[in-house]
Amino acid sequence: MMQLEIELPEELYRDLERLAEAQEWTLAETLRRGAELLLHSYPRDLEPASTWQLPEPMALGDFVAPVSDWRRLANETTPRE
């Protein structure tokens, strides 16, 4: 097994300690499990990011709101259903 030294933000470190204690794991085991989960989420055989291309734009029509209202409209919240 390899040993390493890492720096973590204090809040992240405290949260990891709390999780480790709740699960009855060591901090090292908690970090290993997190690393395994991350590697599972990003498998080795993924295509390189360079093959991705921006999709063609869709015609959405003309703007229906005047430019002066864009900021207000962008910051409005919509009710959740």
Could you walk me through the main structural features you see in this protein, from its secondary elements to its overall organization?
With about 80 residues, the chain is mostly helical. The chain has a domain at about 5-45. The chain contains three helices and no strands. The mean pLDDT is about 90.
How many β-strands, per DSSP? 0
Strand-residue proportion = under 5%
Evaluate the radius of gyration: 23 Å
Sequence stretches where pLDDT stays below 50 over 5 or more residues: none
Short structural summary:
The chain is mostly helical and 81 residues long. The chain has a domain at 7-44. Helices cover 43% and strands 0% of the residues.
Helix and strand layout, with pairings?
Layout: H1 10-23, H2 27-41, H3 70-75
Which labels suit this protein?
3 helices, 0% strand, mainly alpha, 81 residues
